Amino acid sequence: ASNSVSYLSGQQGRGLRTNIDYIADKRYLSIGNYLKNGSLFGMDFIFKEIPENLDPFDYTAFQASPCEFRVGVTNIQTGCTEYFGKESMQNECTVLKASASLPVFSPPVLFQGKYYLDGGTSDPIPVEQALRDGCDRLIVVLTRDRSYQKKPQGFKAFYSLALRKYPEMVRLLARRHQIYNQTLLRIAELEREGIADVIAPEQPLPIDKFEKSREKLMQVYELGFAAGEHYLQRRGLLQA
What we know:
Blueprint: H1 4-8, H2 14-20, H3 31-37, H4 43-54, H5 59-64, E1 71-75, E2 81-84, H6 94-99, E3 109-111, E4 114-118, H7 127-132, E5 138-141, H8 156-162, H9 167-174, H10 176-192, E6 196-199, H11 214-234
Parallel strand pairs: 5-6
Antiparallel strand pairs: 1-2, 1-4, 3-4
């Protein structure tokens, strides 16, 4: 969702800049953030300082885009996904902040009277929601190569303790790998039916979960860019 908003606002290159240009800044990602605010990522820096001052986000162009927009967040009380549209982003990015707040590594985010965490926890690749929204053709962009299978969440005792006030989140994390892998099977089924096209890296990504190397992040960007080019070439929309 955080990348798609810059696409809708027509700010070419902004997604890359906001992911890479500040990676060495301790306000972006650091243990100090976690000790101070309970989040490895500096969420106020990423979703307030950057879009308001350092690399301004064009809310007007975003709202004027003819494209539909949905962002998913996980309700920490129910463990279920809730979705919001453009109306949730009039002049601030709180819903994006919630959608990017990883369980345990970030505190829940208050939005419209409820507390939320990362939507990818409960609905990692929201193809079913897209179908419910009326889409009859899907382009699914995966961030993992096609051989990837998610493993069970580690450190169960730790996250069970950290989220002990939210038992539905604990149960959700325990079966998160099953949800993800079942979604991959569903995507493969939609491919066979001619409903979905998939863009995915051709090889495993050479980065850690909390990667801080600008060079490695650029390498991953180039892999994603190449995967997109190959898709367009296969569809006859771009010359090799």
